[in-house]
Amino acid sequence: MTPSTVVNELIAYGRELAASGAAQVGGTFTDIPEADRLLKESPEAFLIGVLFTQGIPAERAWAGPYLLRERLGHLDLGRLASEPEEVHAAFNTPPMLHRFKNTLPKWVSAAAIRLLDEYDGDASRVWAPGSHVVDVTERLSAFTGIGRKKAVMATEILARHFGVPLEGLDCGQVAYDVQVRRVFLRSGLSREDSVQAIEAAAREAYPEAPGTLDLPAWLIGRETCRPRVPLCDECRIGTVCPRLTWIMVEGVGS
Ligand code: SF4
User: Fold this and answer.
1) How far is CA 213 from the centre of its chain?
2) Cβ pair 156, 215 in contact under 8 A
3) What's the CA gap between 148 and 14, in Å, rounded?
4) Which of 46, 79, 125, 131 has its CB surrounded by the most CB atoms within 10 Å?
5) Does the residue 241 lie in any domain?
6) Mind listing the pLDDT tens digit for each residue in 29-44?
C-alpha cells in the first residue's frame, strides 16, 4: 500500500464529486432548499456564506445567509453596510446565528462595504469568468473574515459546484482544514502537519488540479476518519490507506 494508491483513490473520488457538481455536504450545502437556492442565485449570499464557514458545522454555516435574510428582511448591501446595529441585532437574536456573535456581524458589514466600493455591489466580479485561481483566492482573502483556508475552499466550490470557468486549476489547493489534515496525515500523503507540507503533498499528489483533493479529503475526514473512532472499514480509501490512526490533529472538529 503506497501513497500513490491512496492518491489514485482520492483523485477518483474527487473526480466523481466534481462530475456530480457536489456542493460541500453531498449534493447540497444545507438541509434547507431555500437556503441552497439563495447561495446559488445570489453571489453576495455565497460570499456571506463563506464568512460563516468557521467554528460551526458546515450545514449550519451555509444556512447563515438565508437565516440572516429571514431576520433582516433583506440582504441589501447598502443596508448591510450602513446599518451595522441591525445586522448585529439579527445575529444576536436567540437562537444565535453564529457562535462568533460579535465578529460575524462586523465581517458581514465590512464585506458589504468592500463589495460596494470595489466590485460595484456585484460579488460575482470577485470571481469573474476567466479569472486565475490565484487571483480569486487573493481577492477573497482580502475580505475581513476570510483567511486562506476559507478562500481556497470557496474557490474550489466556485469551480466545482457553480461551474465558474477559472484559469490555473493547477494552482488550486486543499484547505488547511482539520478534516483534510487528519486524512492527509493518517493516509501517509503528508508526514508533516503544516500549511506548506499539506499543500505540497496535494501538489505532488495531483499537480494538474490539487484542489480536486479538497472535498474528498474533507468528506472522508468528516464521515469516516473520525478523530477517536475512525471507521476504516467503511472508508472510501480504506483498502489502500496505511491507517495511521494514532495520529491526531488539533483544531475545531478534531
Ligand atoms: S478512516 Fe482509516 S482508512 Fe480512512 S483515511 Fe482515516 S485512517 Fe485511512
Assistant:
1) 12
2) yes
3) 21
4) 46
5) no
6) 998 999 999 999 999 9
Using the atom order of ligand 1, give the atom closest to the CA of residue 236: 4
CA-proximal residue: ligand 1, atom 7 (nearest) = 243
Pocket of ligand 1 (CB under 6 A): 183, 186-187, 220, 224-225, 230-232, 235, 237-238, 241, 243, 245
- 93 and 43 in a single domain? The answer is yes
Domain count, the chain: 2
Residue ranges of the alpha helices (H) in the chain?
3-19, 33-41, 43-52, 58-72, 77-82, 84-92, 103-118, 133-141, 148-160, 178-186, 195-205, 214-223
Beta-carbon contacts of residue 56 (< 8 Å; ≥ 6 apart): 98, 99
C-alpha cell read off for 163: 461551474
Return the C-alpha torsion angle 231, 19, 134, 168, nearest 10.
Answer: 130
Of 66, 41, 44, 64, the closest CA to residue 54 belongs to 64
Closest CA to 110 of 81, 146, 140: 81
**Confidence at residue 251, expressed as pLDDT on a 0 to 100 scale:** 75
122 found inside a domain:
yes
Q: Mind listing the pLDDT tens digit for each residue in 28-87?
A: 899 899 999 999 999 999 999 999 999 999 999 999 999 999 999 999 999 999 999 999
* Contact assessment for residue 213 and residue 149, using Cβ atoms and an 8 Å cutoff: no
Domain extent, residue 59, equals: 33-127
**Among the listed residues 55, 52, 36, 25, the one whose alpha carbon sits nearest the alpha carbon of residue 252:** 55
